[in-house]
């Protein structure tokens, strides 16, 4: 069995991963509050935990990955009041947008995607347990969690009682016994969504939603809880308090994983700074930029701050162009043997707290090894790193590349579609890397109309250029190349003739 090590935010150290049940690993990640398009920062935990889920599935026989949809929240209510659009329409549309955008980033759907509004009964049950255990109290139509009743409060975030108090709201509501107490349930007026409860018509606080949904789908305790670093306090601190106090003797999440923040051009992304970007803004550049953004996200270790720049996105796209060019040339080769050994070598850094930058470097080494066979170049350095004494046979490094790339969720598309900018199809050689539903989402976005005629025109231009070269009419050959370049068509002359790709 391969050992996986992950950094546990609660323990503040890297620990060997020991699942509660090695036959069934369970993970919960906080999902989106659905009132607006996903921004770049929202995409980071989705991609990071997608890689973790893929890695866990490679190691363990069964994995249940739960990521919720928060579809009851005061931000949604406020959006509906501003725009006049009914709440149900906002949450349905935004959930669909989220699915489409995350599919374009190559993120597989979680195994369970619970919606908060479908778990109100579980939330009420949890709150009743907390009241019965003396950890919560009803006051003035509200139910509050009593922070002083839980001695370990602040342990996850590492905040001292003084810091916690400073963090509590300045204007303390009169119904709170302690300034740090937080809302489990609050009353709703007639214009606000509400459900009947023992404390009157009302709605849940945000934190209780995740405690209820993880309980329902993963049980009183489970293996990994993930989310963005900005959720540690108060959201995750409060989840711990609720779940541990509702189920005494259970440890809730055994490992806590948090991804670092995403900056844009070195600054915190904000609407006021004018550097606010949605995932849709990136996809508007073309479907291939979805995977390019995923690669960019994985180039930085998940716990570090990540600086998004357009130049970085273009670099990631260029790296993928090179990967796909290699894949399009590589001959088919059998798996097993050296191919399996090389794939394990490329995936191994992920076992060390998801070291995606090193895993991506090893993919580049595999590309070098394959290219050495098909287009030349020296494989010596890559061979040394991969501990090979003889170069692999044609297609073997590409086979290993595909297997390892499938764990990272990159280079998942058909190479020719990518290079020629066609409507995408999944690469049939990468099983499970992409679902057909995800592919069909993207096909609608790609240039499909008139594509066939256009490709025939390009082939005709390449034939005309070849004829001009044979007639030593270099000026005409260059003119054709430049004309194609102006249309975004890049020609590559190789031993097997001229190929083309879309820039
Ligand atoms: Zn949550």
TrEMBL record:
Residues 17-317 form the tRNA synthetases class I catalytic domain. It catalyses: tRNA(Cys) + L-cysteine + ATP = L-cysteinyl-tRNA(Cys) + AMP + diphosphate. It is an enzyme of class 6 (ligase). Its cofactor is Zn(2+). Keywords: Aminoacyl-tRNA synthetase, ATP-binding, Cytoplasm, Ligase, Metal-binding, Nucleotide-binding, Protein biosynthesis, Zinc. Binds 1 zinc ion per subunit. Its EC number is 6.1.1.16. A motif ('KMSKS' region) lies at residues 268-272. It holds the Pfam family CysS_C. It is found in: Cytoplasm. ATP binds at residue 271. GO terms for cellular component: cytosol. One of its GO terms (molecular function) is cysteine-tRNA ligase activity. InterPro entries: Cys-tRNA-ligase, Cys-tRNA/MSH_ligase, CysS_C, Rossmann-like_a/b/a_fold, tRNA-synt_1_cat_dom, tRNAsynth_Ia_anticodon-bd. Zn(2+) binds at residues 30, 210, 235, 239. HAMAP family: Cys_tRNA_synth. This is Cysteine--tRNA ligase. It comes from Neoroseomonas eburnea. The lineage of its organism: Bacteria, Pseudomonadati, Pseudomonadota, Alphaproteobacteria, Acetobacterales.
